[in-house]
What does this fold into?
Amino acid sequence: MNLEIRAFLCLTDNYGILVHAPETGATASIDAPEAAPILAALGKEGWTLTDIFVTHHHADHVQGIAALKAAFPQARVTGPGREAATIGALDREVEEGDSVFLGPHMAKVIAVPGHTLGHVAYWFEADKLLFAGDTLFAMGCGRAFEASPAILYRSLLKLAALPDDTQVYCGHEYTLSNARFALSVDPDNAALQRRAETVAALRGAGRLTLPTQMDLERATNPFLRVGEAAIQNSLGLAGADPAEVFTALRERKNRS
Ligand code: ZN
Ligand code: FE
It folds into this structure.
């Protein structure tokens, strides 16, 4: 059976995401940005929270854990072992290559250092689903807070190597502003132009823009396109090493 997913906004622009395995009723929250909307979504579906899969230690991803645990004391909190001390509430510490289960559905843990050092993504290979946290966004990527941009770039390449039809859920709804920035460095990209129109219409109608799909990201996300001449030329870095182009692009986005 297919995993069922509910995505909704928490705080200002964080994503609340519930993943439900109908075979067993197991239900995971991806991160815990804000307890109230997550509890409301669980209540609306009649789902019992069994797991919280944490991507990284930032407050806007973990601050709801205590309240969710208070409501569902059996829920097990899984997250990056490298950030166990800062997160403080992990029942299970995971690292690159570990497997986690939601009912019969298996996710592989992918270490994606950069935004934070211990950041992990959860990849449900058979279900073609990726929960990328604040590493990969629609047409964007997270800031390299705890490692060099070159290390973040390597992490993004790991995600970009996943199959074309992988559905990608991210930690934030930053899609509109990311589209604007992407067009500023890749203005002649027809796929990007079309996508910018699509997401503007979605946001105009009050809809969310996720999930995205990996082949669409590879075609429109400038941070995955730093090997392309179009991006290199607009940064004045024709022929440069992609990691160097990525670094320049990330710095430009930081200032935008
Ligand atoms: Zn973050
Ligand atoms: Fe965040």
Remarks:
- Residues 58, 60-61, 134, 171-172 surround fe (iii) ion (ligand 2) (CB under 6 Å).
